[in-house]
Amino acid sequence: MALPYTVDTHRPTQIGLVTLQSDETIERDFRMLLPSDVELLVSRVPSSATVSLDSLHAMEDSLTASARLLPVGADLAAVGYGCTSASAAIGAARVAGLIKAGVSTPHVSDPLTSLIAACLAGGITKIGLVSPYVASVSDRLIQGLDAAGIAVSSFGSFDEPLEERVVRISRGSIRDAAIHVGRNGTCDAVFMSCTNLRALEVIDEIEAELGVPALSSNQVLAWHLGRLAGFSGRCTAIGRVFGFD
User: Fold this and answer.
1) What is the pLDDT of residues 191-239, one digit of tens each?
2) Integer Cα distance of 194 and 25 in angstroms
């Protein structure tokens, strides 16, 4: 016998996220940042254990298929792609096109696009950059920022190509690196790049020490997706970016 049922007409706001196979950080950070009534739906894209320009470009072939794995019945207000360096290597427009080929959504963002949007909203034109990447990957990110009119006035890198080691970099090391980079040049903000870098919990400490916004890949992506979907004002406000108009 078929059991009777009713259908809920109310839909919560739903956000999609395509994150890397190797990422251990972004989902936890998003669940700390997003309002409790926003549903986060996640798919993963195959990714290399080593970060290089070649491995970043290789994800281009899998992005559409990974986006298709997000639930067909969902009503996604926005979808994020969780990789800062690949967004710079592949290009934001190309990333958005590949994801929209796999899933229906009005908005796609990524950490680089989100960082640029945050800088525009906050009047930021010069940043200090903390990177975990090898030089060729960091250089591509700096070029992407420069093309958007954002200068990197000071820079430091952990120079670590292995994702399994990037995620193990201690929060104390990240905090100290950001403070060092922020003091090493005149900058309007400090940005800690990489969605696998565990930077979220030290943002308040860095801002208190430097007196400028401290931005991280996951933080700005959550902020921007919230802005696109209309809930950024209800996010957990970790960092000054959540006060930007």
Assistant:
1) 999 999 999 999 999 999 999 999 999 999 999 999 999 999 999 999 9
2) 10
